[in-house]
Amino acid sequence: MKKTIAAFAVAAAASVGMLGLFAGSAGAHDAPISYDCFNVTVQFQDFASNGVGVNTATVTVDGAVTNVSFTTANHTTVVPLVSHSGSPSVVVAVAWHGYDGNVGSNSQTFSTASCVAPASTTTTVAPTTTIPTNVSPAEVVKPTATVAAAVVVAPAFTG
Prior knowledge:
Layout: H1 2-25, E1 33-35, E2 39-44, E3 55-61, E4 64-70, E5 75-80, E6 90-97, E7 103-110
Antiparallel strand pairs: 1-2, 2-5, 3-4, 3-6, 6-7
């Protein structure tokens, strides 16, 4: 009887352990994309994380690829982009490979019709004063008249 209970306990523990092992990798990975005319932001969500395994992804914005790697369950990647009204639409594609083996992708095209060019700023610079650098030092004029030194004659000491 004790052997049967012990065997059942081991089997139950193994089942729970396997359930826990697969529960972490069964999560649905997601990578929603947002765009604000100057940046493309990808929010990697619900990835497997044990602090060691590396999740990898590529973010492609209008053909330019940015490689991403992270070890956390959630990660944000921001790719700078300047697109203004009159530019073509922005095409973003994301592909990922979780360290748990789950792979996926997401893509989206954003219109730039509502984007405006940044305001131009005009700066007025005050005029500068030029200081001449080729000025020679002032000439020192020495007096030409000689000044006689006063001579004091003392009587001879006789004494």
